[in-house]
Structures are given as structure tokens and as C-alpha cells.
Amino acid sequence: MKFISQYKLILLVAIFFATFYNLSFFTNVISTYEPVGQNILYICSLAIVLVSFTVFLFTLLSSKYTTKPLLIIALMVSSFTAYFMDTYRVVIDDEMIRNSLQTNLSESSDLFSLQLVLYVLVLGVLPSYFIYKIKIDYRPFKKELFFKIGTLLISLSFIVITILVFSKFYTSFFREHKPLRYHVNPIYWIYSTGNYISKTMNNGPIVVKQIGLDAKIQKTTDEVDKKELIIMVVGEATRADRFSLNGYKKETNPLLKKEDIINFPNFYSCGTSTAQSVPCMFSIYNRDTYDYKKGITTQNVVDVLINTKEVKVLWRDNNSSSKGVADRVDYEDYRTNKNNTICDDECRDEGMLVGLDNYIQKNKDKDILIVLHQMGNHGPAYYKRYPKAYEKFTPVCETNQLEQCTQEEVSNAYDNAVLYSDYFLSKTINFL
């Protein structure tokens, strides 16, 4: 095999990235800027800037010992990000990285598909093997430094000149269409990784700030001997606009509508990932001021209840985990049949109710808060989220490859999962 300079290799890989890994980016660009007239030049200029910036970045980090490993890592990770962006229309930001690092095997298996294997094989493994085998011609240090500086200057010049030539377009692009940048592969996931590290990295051991140490349960004389039992259900990916209680056209809440309940239709989560939403929900901070570091270094409302020494708290989880909320209280994992007695294809939310009466009886001298963290409507395999008995709306999408199904099939599978949540919530109310 012929020798190639590392900078030519970086250029080839940059072109390869722009051509095959950025379908999501260019699809979104074309939907924003119709490819007619001068817009065609603008779109082409984006490709030039993308290639040039990728060359600049990898050249900056290149050396005799880093070029191959960096390119191989970038290709492998980018093959995964390309798949998820192209298939599920997601962006790989720092919260998505946190979510992926905190996921478990069961959640990961829901995302496995032949298409994912093909993406990783064609866009990850094969080009990585090519880079592994290729021979790079490394010049003497001074010459290598000269070519490195030259490559950096040339790539930077292409970026600057292109932006200056189409300055009006880029002013609009950067100011009015910021979300388009989130789809750039590999640049954005590299940026997000750095952002994730900066938000997560701690200087020394984590010290949890205690709050509510003076918290007390205030009761009147008549209430002293009366103990309270509260069950809080933490949902998962269940949209308010799919509840018939909120006016949805399909009857997804046939049981809840018969209960004496109060429904709050104008309610919002802290985010779209479990790793963000659950800790934020229980924290002292609101949606605008909460962040990961604050969450892990400050006690939450569950801790405050424990501080009163008058409340017993139990967290049962049929999802990935409590994301740190229940680290200091009684916690039980209901994802497996070790604890959950109601399992078929997967363990069901209603299994978390089994045996609660025994727990309540053992702690009847205290107020009790029980938190049940649902699997709910965890996607994309919505068809797995309910027993067959709740497949009321048909036909359904029976794959995690949602793009292979019609909108009706995806909606039906999702709505059936809401229907099962309706049953679970009604069963919880009746248990109480």
C-alpha cells in the first residue's frame, strides 16, 4: 500500500464525513433553504466550510501518535451518531451523551437493529480498518510542523473567505437557524462531549449540600394520630396531548375518567431525557436554574422528608434508575423478575404494586411516601410497553425502526401504551 501524508488523509476523511455522515444536516438545511437559484451556492458553501473546519480541527490535534487513533474514534462514534440522527431525528448534545452513558443493557437493546449494524459496519468499521492499514508518511519534525501550519492556515482561509463571500447568508444562518448546527457530524458531538465533560467534571470528591435540616411535619391536634400514605407515580414519555382527559380524540383514559381526580393539563417536564427530568423534578431548583452539578451536589425533596424523621420513603423503579434522587432512601429495582412478579416480554409497571401492603403495614407508625417510577411510554419500541390485552388501537408499529411504519401505526402503538398507563394509574388509585 502506498504511503500518504497525514494531512491528505485528514482531508479525505473530512470529505468522507461531509458526504456520508451529514444526511441529517443537509436534509434540514434543504428544508430551510430551498435548493433553487443562489441557495444552491449557499448550500455548497456550507459543504466547503464543513470540510475545512473538520480538516482544521483534526490537523490541530494531529501528530505521529494521535492521527490514526483520533480518526478511527471519530469514524466509529460518528457512525452511531449518523444512525441516530438519520433514523430518530435527534441531536447529540451533552444531555443526550449523559443519557447514553447512564443507559442500561435493556434500554440499549430496544435500539438495536440491522440498520444500526449496517451503519456502524459501513461508516465505522470499514473506513476505520482502511485507516488502520494505511501507511502514513511522517516527515522530519520541522517539515511536519511546516506542513501542519500550512494546512491549518489554508483550511482557516477557506472558512474565512467562504463566510466573507456569502456574509449575508451566514449572518442569517448563525443568527436565525442555530438548531441547524446541532446536526453537524462530527463537529457537534465533539463539542457536546467537551461540554458534557466541563459540566460533569468535579474538582475533588462530591460534597452534597444538606437542605431542610429543620424540616418538620406540621399537624393539628386532631391529625397527630392520623398517618398519611401518598403514592407518587413518575411517568415516562407520556404526552399530555395523548390523554383523552385533556381532549385527545381517542379514548386513552377510560378508567381514569371514572375516578374522582383532579387533572392538571398545563404541566411541563424539565427536559426530554430521564437523566435531566427526574432529578430536576425533585430538586429545589426550577427548570431554568437546574443543572447536573447542582442536582448531584444538593439534597432533594426526598432527602428533606427523611430529615423530618417522621416520613418513610420507598422508591420502586421500573425504569433505568432514580438518577440519584433515591440514593439515600429505600430503593427497589423492578426491571427484573427478581422483585417484579408481573413480567412477560418485559416487567410491567403494575408489578410495582405487589407487596406494597406489606411495606405499609411494617411502617404504619409513620407517614409514608411511595414513589413508583414507570417504564411508561419509553421509546422507540412502544409496542413493547403494554401487554397484548391493551392493544386496542390497531394496526400498530411492531419495530423500533419507526421510519418503516406509518404515522398511524406509530401513534396506535404509543396510544396503547398510554391506555396501559391509564390502567396502572387506576389500579394504583384503587390500591390506595
Automatic annotation (TrEMBL):
Localization in the cell: Cell inner membrane
Taxonomic source organism: Poseidonibacter ostreae
Ranges annotated as spanning the membrane: 9-33, 39-58, 70-92, 112-133, 145-166
GO BP annotation list: lipopolysaccharide core region biosynthetic process
Keyword match Transferase: yes
PTM per Swiss-Prot/TrEMBL: The conversion to 3-oxoalanine (also known as C-formylglycine, FGly), of a serine or cysteine residue in prokaryotes and of a cysteine residue in eukaryotes, is critical for catalytic activity.
Keyword Cell inner membrane: yes
Name of this chain's protein: Phosphoethanolamine--lipid A transferase
Boundaries of every Sulfatase N-terminal domain copy: 230-431
GO molecular function terms listed in the Swiss-Prot or TrEMBL record: phosphotransferase activity, phosphate group as acceptor
Domain (Phosphoethanolamine transferase N-terminal): residue spans on this chain: 50-200
Upper lineage: Bacteria, Pseudomonadati, Campylobacterota, Epsilonproteobacteria, Campylobacterales
